Structure formats: C-alpha cells, structure tokens
Amino acid sequence: MSSVLEQAVTLHRPRQAAPANPQAAARWPVEAIEALFDLPFPELMHQAQTVHRENFDPTRVEFATLLSVKTGGCPEDCNYCPQAARFDTGVEATKLMEPHEVRLAAQRAKDAGATRFCMGAAWRAPKDRDIEKVAELVRTVKALGLETCATLGMLEDGHAETLQSAGLDYYNHNLDSAPDFYGDIITTRDYQDRLDTLARVRSAGVKVCCGGIVGMGETRRQRAGLVAELANLTPYPESVPINNLVKVEGTPLADQADLDPFEFVRTIAVARITMPKARVRLSAGRQQMGDAVQALCFLAGANSIFYGDKLLTTGNPDTGADVALLERLGMTRSAPELQP
C-alpha cells in the first residue's frame, strides 16, 4: 500500500542541473515572475525576506558612492535622461575629470563610509583613448582600497580587458526595461547592444552591475519582463540596481505619473527572490520615497544603497539622513567582503 507525501510548494526554486545550453531554457519565465508580483503583499514580503536571510545578514547594507566623471552631451535619446544633449534640462556638458579630482572625491566617499566607488561618464560608446583615461581613474580609486565600478556606455572588443587590467571590479550597464517596452524609451541603440556589452564584460572577468528603471509607464507584466531578462542572464548580475524614475524637467518623461510605492517595493522583493545572491541596490528615486518606503525595501531584500547627496545629475538623500535611518532601524553599513 503506497502513501502520498505532501509537500509545501514555494516559489523559491531548488537548484537544478544546468542544461547543456544554458540559454536553452529560461530559468524564470515571465509568467512565473508576474505570479510573484501578483502575490498578496505579506506573502511576497515573507518569501523575499526568507530568501534574503538565506544569503545575507538582513541587518547590513552596503554603501556605494556614484560620481559623474564626465557629465552631459550624450547623443542618445533615453527619454528619462537629463544628460541627453537633445533635451533642454539645464545640464552642462563637462570634460572628463582629472585623476587628482577623482582621488579627492573617492577619499571623501571612503571617509564617509562608502566601500564601493562608481564612476559614470555620459558617452554612447567610449573611444580607445577614453578607456585608457578611465583606466587611470580606476587605478587611482583602487589605490585607496575601495571597490571600483564604472558605467561608460557600450564597450567594444578589448575595452573591458583594459579596465579589468586596471583593477575594475564591476561594470554597470543597465537593461533599463523589458525588451517589449524598450523602443518606447530609447531608439538610438538596440536591446542587443546592451546584451553584447554585458557579454564583453563577463568574458573579461569583470563583475556585472545591471538593473533597470521602473515607473516609466510600463505595465506590471513589463516590469516582470525586465526582472526575467536580468534573472535569466548566465549568470545573473552580482549587483542589481533598481531605479525609480526621477522626473526631470525637459525630458519626455517629466510628466509621467508616479509609480505606486508598493509596486516599487514589490519589484525589489521579486528581484531578491529571482536573484538570491545578488546585491539589490536602491538607486535613483530614493529622495522621493521617504523613510517608511525605504524601510520596506530593506525588508523586501534591498541590501545596498547609493550614498551621497547626488546621483550623476539628480538629488539623493544626504549622508546624515541615511546613517540616521539605519540607526533607527537597528541596521548597520558593511563592506561587501563582510557579507556571505
């Protein structure tokens, strides 16, 4: 006489043997991710917090600082971006910063508690000479004992290797949106261009920082589609910045309706469940969230923030407010190497 063993089914899937072709089968179908979004809020938060605790100390948050080392004048038409030259946003184009200027900014960031220093340059695709100059900036920051990250646009063959040789730890190149929404936001580059740059970064042995932006008018299914693209990268990114649209006067999305804050928290939770070992970072838009929503994001699995009063060209909560919030929550900042 046989008996049936009943088991609870969870959406945190057990590890399976990799297929012969890793791209042959999607690990997270869009439908499964959309089902996570549709869960009752308490159930989604419980699942996300459970996954988070399995992989990280839930009381620790990484502090990263982002510096715009070359601002404005970008030829792209990203509808959210104040650095696009075609939009009248009041952002003035600048030349690439000198190493001594970056060293001072990086030292200030380290003194304020940052452990990762990210450098952003508003290029569509840097030239060889640009890469050599950024490599020098990477060496400058690395000498201070900080983790380094750069976001410079699309990379050509050999660029990632040059940056890796200089000591670059992470390269940021966001997918921005789901593929079926991408053309509504950007027309000056293809989705495949972004994937090609990520492949070059991976092949050079540089860790990937890759996320997207929500609140640009996409549907929930399209938010699920963005997370699916990220989670099904092989491997998924080590660092996943989730941005809430910052509406800037002069950009086409300046009058976009606000995203429900709970929907943003849901996006954080779903990213945590589908990419359990990634650092999920609260990025742009924190200034508009308020402390309560940020606290919910930490509960949902966010464990990294951009720290400092500015993100490239838009505002960010001041450093004192961030430290005070963590103290109120009984949480602490920590260096990446202290995490599992």
TrEMBL record:
Domain of life: Bacteria
Pathways involved: Cofactor biosynthesis; biotin biosynthesis; biotin from 7,8-diaminononanoate: step 2/2
Protein's UniProt keywords contain Nuclease: no
Pfam families: BATS, Radical_SAM
UniProt: [4Fe-4S] cluster binding residues: C74, C78, C81
Subunit structure: Homodimer.
Database matches in HAMAP family: BioB
Family: Belongs to the radical SAM superfamily. Biotin synthase family.
PANTHER family given in the database record: BIOTIN SYNTHASE, BIOTIN SYNTHASE, MITOCHONDRIAL
Protein name stated in the entry: Biotin synthase
